Each structure stands twice: as C-alpha cells, then as structure tokens.
Amino acid sequence: MEAGGGIAARFTWHPEYAGRLLLDVRDELVREIGADQRAYALAMEAAEAREDDALASVLRLERRWGPYDLNWAEADPEQLADRIVQWEWERERRQELFPFSEVRDQAPLPDVPPAQQSWLDWLRRLFGPRANNE
Fold first, then answer.
1. How many folded domains does the chain comprise?
2. Closest by alpha carbon to 72, among 105, 46, 36, 100?
3. What is the pLDDT of residues 7-35, one digit of tens each?
4. 5 is a domain residue
5. Which of the listed residues 9, 24, 41, 84 has the most CB atoms within 10 Å of its CB?
6. Dihedral of CA 91/96/99/104: which sign?
7. What is the domain range of residue 69?
8. How far apart (Å, rounded) are the C-alpha atoms in residues 25 and 31?
9. The CA-based dihedral angle spanning residues 43, 44, 47, 49, taken in that order and rounded to the nearest 10 degrees
10. CA distances from residue 28 to 1, 78, 105 in whole angstroms, order as listed
11. Is 2 inside any structural domain?
C-alpha cells in the first residue's frame, strides 16, 4: 500500500471511501471491529435470557465480518483491519469491486491444527461460497 513521494495514501475512486485517507479507514475499521466484538460477546452472554434478540445480533455481526475471517470475534482487530484495508486498497488500485474471496483464496493458509481444519472444512461444505454477500 504505497502512496509514493511521502504523501499519505488516499482513496480517490472507491465508492465507499473516496476522499478518505487509508490510515483513517484502517483506524475506523479497528474501532468498528472492536465494538462489534464486544457486542458479539454481550449477545452471547444474553443468549439464554433473550435468545431471539441474541441470535439476530449474532447473525448480523457474522454477516458483516464472517467473510473476512470465520474467527473474527476472537481475531486481533488491528490484524483483521489490516487485511480488509489491503483488500480495499487493491480494489482502489484496480478500480474494480471484486469480492474479498478472490484475495482470501490467493492468500497462503496459516498452519491450522488438524481438528480445527476439519471443523473449518465442515463449515465450508455447510455454507459453501458466499459470493452474493461479498
């Protein structure tokens, strides 16, 4: 994410972030992810007492952050924001709104324990590609 010439990188084409500095977008994402992680934790704590409300909250948050990381609720907000910003910057660079899955599928997979990998494989088979949400 090079801006060149010592000038801060700024979105110019992007339909959502045009005119904003890349660093400002990243900071906003870090705050939003952190807030949504806290909201997720509260919804899970209240799940027994208010099951319907908790489910609606959890599903809304999963739809928002799940495409970026299935483990978003426990992910480091700064690292997740970095991945999202890299993707958004690449969209800016190409001037094309391609889905995050295109970047995610090209990224090397981290070392995942076999038990967790089988769980992730099961989730992928269950939910399949989410092209219409990305």
1. 1
2. 36
3. 789 999 999 999 999 999 999 999 999 99
4. no
5. 84
6. negative
7. 22-133
8. 10
9. -70
10. 17, 10, 25
11. no
